[in-house]
Design brief:
Blueprint lengths: L8 E8 L5 H11 L20 H6 L6 E7 L2 E7 L7 H10 L2 E7 L6 H12 L4 E6 L8 H12 L3 E3 L1 E4 L7 E4 L4 E4 L10 E3 L6 H18 L1 H8 L6 H13 L4 E5 L8 H11 L9 E4 L6 E4 L8 E10 L2 E10 L7 E4 L4 E4 L2 E5 L4 E4 L7 E5 L9 E3 L17 E7 L2 H17 L4 E4 L6 E5 L2 H14 L4 E3 L3 E2 L2 E4 L3 E11 L2 E13 L6 E5 L11 H11 L13 E9 L7 H18 L2 E15 L3 H10 L3 E8 L2 E9 L6 H8 L5 E11 L10
Parallel strand pairs: 1-3, 1-4, 4-5, 5-11, 6-11, 30-31
Antiparallel strand pairs: 2-3, 7-8, 8-9, 9-10, 12-13, 14-15, 14-21, 15-20, 16-17, 16-21, 18-19, 18-20, 22-24, 22-25, 22-26, 23-24, 27-32, 28-29, 29-31, 32-34, 32-35, 33-34
The chain binds guanosine-5'-diphosphate and magnesium ion (MG).
Length: 685
């Protein structure tokens, strides 16, 4: 098989807020590139990338499925990242392996909180982006609002490449400001053909002005273009695209396109922009990691002759078989050849490797840099692991896992079921590292912690439907935390006979409050004369372990500094074990004196609602101890920004729907932990 031209490879993601239209637009992309023969609609439960039965049932995308298409000789792999806030890890995980992204915004709702979060995540990975303003056919669509919000909320420079022709129900197509022509689509062929005509007379003047503004913005951002532009030349479509490409790759600006996914308008120009403006793997700097043997920085060029480096970014179980998605950065992978998993320090072997098209898998003999493939036969590889040769290992940075804020209790019906439950949970954890499992010491129940109601609900349903488990499921509960309100000190002494020998230790622990979000910091402030340095790590570890379970309700203790500030040592009797116990006792006693308080998760909520229902929405928020922070005019609707405790937001979507006759949309995301104003409900309540 000839090596593909890497310059003709694009690995992109589609990022946005839930319901902005990712799945709908992806479905068009697959349809126009021949990947599917019929358009499946989200609301009919038929969209191709929503392949998990639950996603189809709910009309949302949960897993980031990788799909490869061909567009004009370019191999484009698209990751349909989920927009729901409960699934940010999926977004983060795909950002790791993307080279570029399309950000989709709704022309009505604009830049919503989840888009903001994902956008800033993408900033962190320096991912070049283009934007697509969707839903121009809807009442209240206003693309200039979105441009303004891209500037204000995202701090990015929008470069608008198109103008809408017609508005709302009358939306018909777009003016292409680069080529100076009109593009429209017909419903008869479901938008397959792009109809190219002259710019309609009534739009000529505005188009010309918009083009001037675009060229001026490009000239401000790109010196090469500026020189040609000032010289009175250089505004050929090719020169404009070349400049836009440089600007996009350098993250200096964001080209903006527009259309309506549902009405099949604007998708092909978006694909053109993907190949014209977004990077190939070769445009990116070498991939950074560390050498696991030394911890020193290491990097790999996008070169098939370099040693293999590949990141496992997703594991799914497909018809009982484990399928591991890999992004290859350097070197080559071949089925049957041994590779080294740098994170687990084990040798692995891929049985088969595939490129995943939407309608078929293509079996590969070899895959090189820039490829996104799926492999069978990898047994010990988990999400986030790096594969490489044993003798030139590299490890890429692991994922930042967000805070789980909700728990749900599970109880197996029998001990046989319990074993099955644990095995199933292990499989689910391989796929999704954001949820955690622990056993409640008091009740013996298994607790699943996740990112929110929906996340937990999806997990529980999969346990029941996919794994066929019979489990008793509790109500979702907020995950609280604990902290302290004042500084305190306490002493802990251990003096006991252990295995026939008296062991002794004494430690004094001081705890001090830290600002919200600081987490737990622990350390020692001692002289070697008080306690020899060899015991210091044991002291610290003991406090960290104790902090897992706070004095009030057993929740994790955060936002404090815990230090061992004194102690004594007996040369013949002091042991590590004794210091661990003494530090634990001192830490617990100090916490008890430091006025422990409960912290609860607060959510940021944004609601878009027609004016008529504004009062109902605000009253309801007040009843939930919500704080309205701002009410913003958004044309015909209002945007309410508020914060509220998660404990009061259970079932919010249902309540909001009934209070507003389904006319409001909302989004919610974790904001921070803060002092709980109400006591936490007792367990099992
Ligand atoms: P996702 O959550 O971002 O994947 O969004 P979906 O593609 O699932 O779309 C959410 C809802 O918006 C669905 O009911 C779509 O049919 C609808 N939708 C998507 N694109 C458009 C559009 O361009 N115009 C209109 N009017 N509705 C759209
Ligand atoms: Mg979707």
């Amino acid at each position: 098989m000839p090596q593909r031209d890497l310059r003709k490879t694009r690995n992109i993601g589609i990022i946005s807020h839930i319901d902005a239209g990712k799945t709908t637009v992806t479905e068009r992309i697959l349809f126009y590139t021949g990947g599917i023969h019929r358009l499946g609609e989200v609301h009919e439960g038929l969209a191709t990338t929503d392949w998990m039965p639950q996603e189809r049932g709910r009309g949302i995308s949960i897993t980031a499925a990788a799909v490869t298409i061909l567009w004009k000789d370019y191999l484009v792999t698209i990751l349909d990242t989920p927009g729901h806030v409960d699934f940010t890890i999926e977004v983060e995980r795909s950002l790791r392996i993307l080279d570029g992204a399309i950000a989709i915004f709704s022309a009505v709702e604009g830049v919503e909180p989840q888009s903001e979060t994902v956008w800033h995540q993408a900033d962190r990975y320096r991912i070049p982006r283009i934007a697509f303003i969707n839903k121009l056919d809807r009442i209240g669509a206003e693309f200039t609002h979105v441009l303004q919000e891209i500037r204000e909320k995202l701090g990015a420079e929008p470069l608008c490449l198109q103008l809408p022709i017609g508005a709302e129900q009358g939306f018909r197509g777009v003016v292409d400001l680069i080529e100076e022509r009109a593009l429209t689509w017909s419903s008869e062929d479901q938008g397959k053909a792009v109809l190219i005509t002259d710019i309609p007379g009534e739009l000529e003047k505005t188009s010309q002005e918009a083009r001037e503004r675009l060229l001026e913005s490009i000239a401000e951002l790109d010196e090469t273009f500026l020189a040609a532009y000032l010289g009175g030349e250089g505004s050929s479509p090719d020169a404009i695209r070349a400049a836009l490409r440089r600007i996009t790759l350098a993250n200096r600006g964001v080209p903006v396109l527009m259309g309506s996914g549902l009405r099949n308008q604007g998708v092909q120009p978006l694909l053109d922009a993907v190949v014209d403006l977004l990077p190939s793997p070769l445009d990116l700097p070498p991939t950074q990691g560390i050498d696991p043997r030394t911890g020193d920085p290491a990097e790999r060029p996008h070169d098939p002759k370099a040693p293999l480096s590949a990141l496992a970014f997703k594991i799914i179980t497909d018809e009982g078989r484990r399928l591991t998605y890999l992004r290859i950065y350097s070197g080559q992978i071949k089925p049957g050849t041994s590779v080294f998993n740098a994170n687990q320090a084990v040798e692995e072997r891929a049985a088969r490797i595939f490129r995943m098209f939407s309608n078929k898998r293509e079996r590969l003999e070899v895959a090189g840099p820039g490829s996104i493939i799926a492999a069978t036969g990898l047994k010990a590889t988990y999400t986030g692991d790096t594969l490489c040769p044993r003798d030139s290992p590299i490890q890429f940075e692991s994922l930042q896992v967000p805070t789980p804020v909700m728990d749900i209790a599970l109880e197996a019906q029998s001990s046989a079921e319990e074993k099955k439950l644990n095995e199933s949970l292990e499989k689910l954890m391989a796929e999704d590292p954001t949820f955690r499992v622990r056993v409640d010491e008091e009740t013996g129940q298994t607790l699943l912690s996740g990112m929110g109601e929906l996340h937990l609900d999806v997990l529980v349903r999969r346990l029941i439907e996919e794994f066929g488990l019979k489990v008793k499921v509790g109500k979702p509960q907020v995950v609280y935390r604990e902290t302290i309100a004042q500084a305190a000190e306490a002493e802990g002494v251990f003096e006991h006979e252990v295995s026939g020998k008296i062991q002794f230790a004494q430690a004094v622990v001081r705890v001090e409050p830290l600002p919200r979000g600081a987490g737990l910091k622990s350390g020692v402030r001692l002289s070697e004369a008080e306690i020899p340095a060899e015991f210091w790590p044991a002291l610290e570890q003991s406090m960290t372990l104790q902090a897992q379970s706070g004095p009030l309700r057993g929740y994790q203790v955060v936002d404090l500094l815990a230090q061992v500030v004194g102690g004594s040592y007996n040369e013949s009797k002091s042991t590590e074990l004794a210091y661990e116990v003494a530090a634990a006792k001192a830490f617990q006693a100090a916490l008890g004196r430091a006025r422990p308080v409960l912290l609860e998760p607060l959510m940021r909520v944004e609601i878009v609602v027609p004016e008529d229902f504004l009062g109902a929405v605000i009253n309801d928020l007040n009843a939930r101890r919500g704080k309205v922070e701002a009410i913003v005019d958004r044309g015909k609707v209002k945007l309410v920004k508020a914060s509220a405790p998660l404990s009061r937001l259970f079932g919010y979507s249902t309540d909001l729907r009934s209070a507003t006759q389904g006319r409001a949309t909302y989004s919610m995301q974790f904001s921070r932990y803060d002092v709980a104003l109400e006591p936490a409900p007792s367990p099992g309540a």
